[in-house]
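Per reviewer request, we include the raw input and output of the structure prediction for the construct analysed in the revised manuscript.
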Amino acid sequence: MTIRRSLFPIIAARRTPRALVTRWLERPEIDSLPDAPMAELERRVAELLGKQAALFFPSGTMAQQVALRIHADRSGRRVFAAHPQTHLDVWEERGYTAVHGLRHRPVGDRHELMNAADLAAIDEPVAAVVWELPQRDLGGLLPGWDELGREVAAARAAGAAIHMDGARLWEAQTFYRRPLAEIASLFDTVYVSLYKGLAGLRGALLTGDRATIAEAAVWRKRLGGAISETWPVALSALDGLDTILPRMAEFREHAIAIAAALTADGVASVAPDPPQTPIFHVHLPAGRRAVEAAGAALIEKNGTQLFPRVRSAPDPGRCSFEVSVGPNAMELAPAEVAALIRELVDRARAT
């Protein structure tokens, strides 16, 4: 099956070696390889986020575990608090326990954002509190700016460090409409992804004060993350900063338009409605396996990918998938997406 168009931001067309190298050759950093591109990337992201320093990690999983390990060692506490659906717990095999001996204290209802009352109910000292902005598994939900400030203040008053899982901070900024540095200023450490919204090759950056990042560099070496020849990763991320990040607000508006078209059609529902960021969930009146088969048939028919993965639901007759609007999704008009999803549901129901 050949994918030509997608509601998912990363497909092969943007990441082919020829396409990547062609864009890289246009960058001035290409003349100062191999080290300058990563140094430039770390400098630019630290400046964007208003932090003293930034450090490259080969994965966000490693970056976040290191941040939490540092906060735990400094406080003498081995517990961190985060939403029940934190990426650290759901998608990373609980590496924080296996590698660092840390424990996750879930906070709040798994289907709602955690709030100040949830944080106040924590009955044990924690090393850090983690906010995932936006909360991907809740459809890209975000707390309001004032609420976020109250939550952070409450956590600080309890002696916890404040960490942001900012894998999709680039998208979250379109909701808060504040400078990235103002958002990041609430947090002691911030991790950002280089390959998700920015469509880079791989990797992550951890940002914070100089002392924390120097300590993080030691842990990166201990864990085997101090890899050499990172310039291709840096150039792809710099390309994303220059060509994709400035379009995030445009992606959000397109997500809102797609969601409105789906709501008007009535065959599916969306959450949140309207989307707060370029990310939202589409909920379908059909079972997961039938929808997966129908999605594969649509790719075979016209090369259009509606999702990379379908989420099951407690009701076996329903499921959902994530829409993450980026350059690829901009090629699909809202009315066309609604028609494709209606066809998807019709095919699923017919199986």
